[in-house]
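Protocol step 4 of 6.
Sequence for DUF7041 domain-containing protein (Acanthosepion pharaonis) entered exactly as in the expression construct, tag removed. Do not edit the line below.
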Amino acid sequence: MESAKSDSLDMTAAIIPLPAYHHNAKNWFLQVESIFSMLRITSQRARFANVMQKLPSDMMDEISDVLSDLREHEPYDHLKEAILKRTGRSEEDMIQEILRNVTRGDKTPSQLLRYMRNQLGKYNVSEKVLRGLWLEHLPKSVAQIIAPMTRATPLDDLAESADLVFAQFDHSVNAVRAPT
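Step 5 output, structure tokens:
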């Protein structure tokens, strides 16, 4: 009797309505897993069947090799991992996209650092990654002068030092004169 009850739960789970797949796979899986959790669907096979029914044909083409070599054990986890790996943008890609349009303008190095942190918002960017991105946006002359300090100095302290260096430069464009 227990086996029949388990099978009926799988059958019921196989027909639950899920949101249409959208191309932000990470967020889509968060929605789907929330539904699975709420309905107490824990079976890997039931989860796999539900996800498969919602995948568009272009996604099926993208993961066809995975489907032909699908593990019997944990098919849902294997499918999810393949979809996320192949379609999900890495956090670094998203960060690069956010910061691609960052311009220094007339910001001091510390203002630029605060602005970049603000733009990154919810992303947990490591200090090392942020340091590298920030240094790329500094004027070359400032970055060269503070280069010896970049590894050992905390980023906020480094920004203050960069501000001091930055203040020493005349940032206006000067006319070039021939020597007299």
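Step 6, annotate. The chain has a mean pLDDT of 82.
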